[in-house]
Amino acid sequence: MGRNLLRVSLAQINSTVGDLKGNSQKILNFIEKARDQESDIVIFPELALTGYPPEDLLLKPQFLQENMETLRSLAGQVKGIAAVVGFVDVEDDIFNALAVISEGEIRGVYRKIFLPNYGVFDEYRYFQRGRETPVFLLNGCRIGMSICEDIWYPEGPHLNQAIGGESQILVNISASPFHVGKRELREKMLSTRAQECGAIVVYVNIVGGQDELVFDGGSLVFDEKGYLVVRAKVFQEDLVTVDLEPDRVLRSHLQDPRRRAKKLDYPSPPLVEISREGRHKSRKLKKRIEPVPVQEEEVFRALVLGTRDYVRKNGFEKVLVGLSGGIDSSLVACIAREALGEENVVGVIMPSQYNAPSSMEDAHTLARNLGIKTFTLPIQEIFHAYREVLKKEVFKGLKEDVTEENIQARIRGNLLMALSNKFGWLVLTTGNKSEMSCGYATLYGDMAGGFAVIKDVYKTEVYRVARFINNSKDKEIIPESIIKKPPSAELRPGQKDQDTLPPYEVLDAVLKAYVEKEYSFRELLGMGYEENIIRDVIRMVDRNEYKRRQSPPGIKISPRAFGKDRRLPITNLYSPFS
Q: Helix, strand, coil % (nearest 5) of the chain?
């Protein structure tokens, strides 16, 4: 083994936004692990030091100053290895940047050039664009560096670094949020960049939950021909170390006359030397390609990670789930138990006169299967007291309607919040995306809580994930009777969801087209569904923006979630039917 091998560690860490001290210590711990593996360089994700996204913390001068001080302190402790660390650079403005650190010093800085300003991203709100595309020289190997969005553009900085700067390795540090289908898209794009540039691509993604976002990790290495050679674990921290052969890249460049022609169009970027001597490696490492989960498992693991990090990073120990014996609350309870352990999940069963005995039996069976503690708090007497007070004067002579249904939901919300206040437990709400889209939920009732776990999961997906949970275990977790029963809020005799909503298979298809793809009314008609169904769905979605604005944050798993992704005005007289 000679110096033509460069040993690279991909440090896929779970940073916490704002925890500069904790993030710095974690970075140092991973540097030590990489040094133990005889790595030449260890690479951390985008804004690993501050956590991503820091949002309006970036408007606080003290936070920015402490971020710089923490980086300098960290750099002073890095010896015997080079490290790439994402941070916020502060000069005449602020920049999303990476620092290349070696032998106790910051050797160079790269500033992100392409700032995303769509979907969940708001980087133009905070950052100035970078201008330079330096190439870093380590042990005779030229390495181009970029940050997240930079590599998504075909004409991004990587192209100048690879062609003008003759980089053999292109490093991209990232904070790329998860949604269904994102991993496949990401891998295809990175493979294409490796082929286009004729260079090894090293991609390091952050992992963890941050409010509505989940970052799935799955850091990658593609060789110069675009073949996958490394994939880190998904939805968990990981350190992957790989031996790269930059000389192979150089040989392929010499045999490609097209690069010589292209080189005339790309200026030579600045070259920054990282003064380290390569070390002889005691052994050559095997390449590691971690498997990827099927879609239902992927969604489940994203929800588990998002729930765990939201609860733990916000200082909670236990969570509360209202168990109705229905599929939604059952899935939320399963996610909570997987995320936090059975000892940290409490189920609350709140029967009324409208609940079928079988629903309460199903709720108790689920709790036993999960091993979680439950409280049973009947609401009949409270509901009766509400009705008597209102009937005496205000509601006298009026027929009961949805008002009384919502009172029951709000009683349950009050009971859950009382337990939360008394014991400091976080309430997890159980509404799904189909319900939230249509406003089929009660403000200050079943929407009352601190975190909406399945807020971005359509009802049909709820069933698929529930089936996955049962199929992945040695025993039935969610009772089959829960999965098979027609969904119902059980707020009046004989109530079924389908009394108010279209069949979920139809509803979810229309919602995906209208909410996520922005299909027009006429385009929706072309899908072949009944016009009255399409009109009803559009009206329900549009008139319930005020409810969604008041709902707790929830985990994004779709390409376009309510909240940061989709921001419509509440006061809005636009008609899609005109």
A: 40, 20, 40
383 or 258, greater pLDDT: 383
Is the pLDDT assigned to residue 1 strictly greater than 60? no
Indicate the Cα dihedral angle 197, 259, 40, 229, nearest 10°. Answer: 40
Cα end-to-end span (Å), the chain? 71
Nearest to 217 by CA among 209, 229, 208, 226: 208
φ, ψ dihedrals at 117, nearest 5°: -145, 50
Alpha-carbon gap, residue 180 to 443, rounded angstroms: 29
* DSSP-assigned letter for residue 72: H
Judge whether 46 counts as a catalytic residue. Answer: yes
Alpha carbons within 13 A on the beta-carbon side of 383: 23
Question: What is d(CA 562, CA 515) in angstroms, rounded to the nearest whole number?
Answer: 9
Question: Among residues of the chain, what percentage have pLDDT more than 90?
Answer: 76
Q: Higher-confidence residue: 118 or 46?
A: 46
Choose, from 26, 38, 123, 148, the residue flagged as catalytic.
Answer: 148
Q: What is the pTM of this model?
A: 0.92
Reported as a single tens digit per residue, the pLDDT across 375-389 is 999 999 999 999 999
Which of 499, 471, 496, 477 minimizes the C-alpha distance to 485? 496
The bridge status of strand 141-147 relative to strand 82-90 is unpaired
Spatial neighbors of 116 by CB under 8 A, at least 6 apart, are 123, 148, 149
Query: 308 vs 325, 337, 338, 343, CA distance in Å?
Result: 23, 10, 9, 14
Distance between CA 364 and CA 323 in Å, rounded?
A: 9
**Is the pLDDT assigned to residue 492 strictly greater than 80?**
no
Q: Which of 112, 318, 459, 547 is catalytic?
A: 112
Choose among 361, 296, 297, 368: nearest CA to 337: 368
Q: Which has the higher per-residue pLDDT, 529 or 14? A: 14
Residue 257: pLDDT band (50, 70, 90) is low
375-410: b or e for each residue (b if 16 or more CB lie within 10 Å)? eebebeebbeebeeeeeeeeeeeeeeeeebbbbbbb
Six-digit token pair at 382? 């409270």
Secondary structure (3-state) at 272: strand
Check residue 2 and give its pLDDT: 43
Residue-level pLDDT at 12: 98
Rounded Cα distance between 465 and 470, Å, is 9
Q: Are 557 and 303 in contact (CB under 8 A)?
A: yes
- Alpha-carbon span 43 to 145, nearest angstrom: 10
Q: Is 438 a catalytic residue?
A: no
Pick the catalytic residue: 46, 123, 149, 338? Answer: 46
Token reading at 59:
């408007």
The yes-or-no answer on residue 21 being catalytic is no
Please tell me the least confidently modeled range out of 190-204, 251-265, 352-366, 517-531.
251-265
Relative to beta strand 238-244, strand 6-12 is: antiparallel
**Amino acid (one-letter) located at 447:** M
- The helix (H) or strand (E) run that includes residue 229 is strand 228-231
Domains and CATH numbers, the chain: 6-274 (3.60.110.10), 296-549 (3.40.50.620)
Q: What's the mean per-residue pLDDT of the chain?
A: 92
Least confident of 159-173, 347-361, 482-496, 517-531: 482-496
